[in-house]
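Format notes (please read before filing issues)

Several people have asked whether sequences and structure tokens are stored in separate files. They are not. Every record keeps both together, in the order shown below: the sequence lines, then the token lines. Line labels are part of the format and must not be stripped during preprocessing.
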Amino acid sequence: MREIIIGDRTIVVTHVNTETTEHGDIQNYRVDVAGADASTTLSILRASRTVDARVMASALGTELLLGYDGSAEHGLLRNSGVREWRDENRGLIEDAWEQLQSEIAQLPPEPAGDAERTLRRAFGLNGPDTGASADA
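Then the structure lines:
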């Protein structure tokens, strides 16, 4: 679990479960906004279940900043209070997102899945096991 406070609300992201697929592990997270009956799920193809800056940034970006179509119907933005709060605090949300992006830049690269690693090796984009770009 990880939380971030923006304005007068706390956004909490919690790992719910892992689904193993032929393409790799899909991590499912629950995103809640304190003081609202709004919550949603976020699914990310990644090996780690850790709620790190990457997951938090994804939650803020998809649910609050970008407001993807489904968010208005099934996500956080279906709650009118969250929509109003988002509109009033958009600058603070963007600041938090930028702070998370800075934190992400300091994190090691995410491990790549077998298929991605194979493709990267085939195109000479990385070392044999790191998943990181050879130019990095």
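For reference, the curators noted about this record: The first strand starts at residue 2 and ends at 6. Residues 127-136 have pLDDT under 50 and may be disordered.
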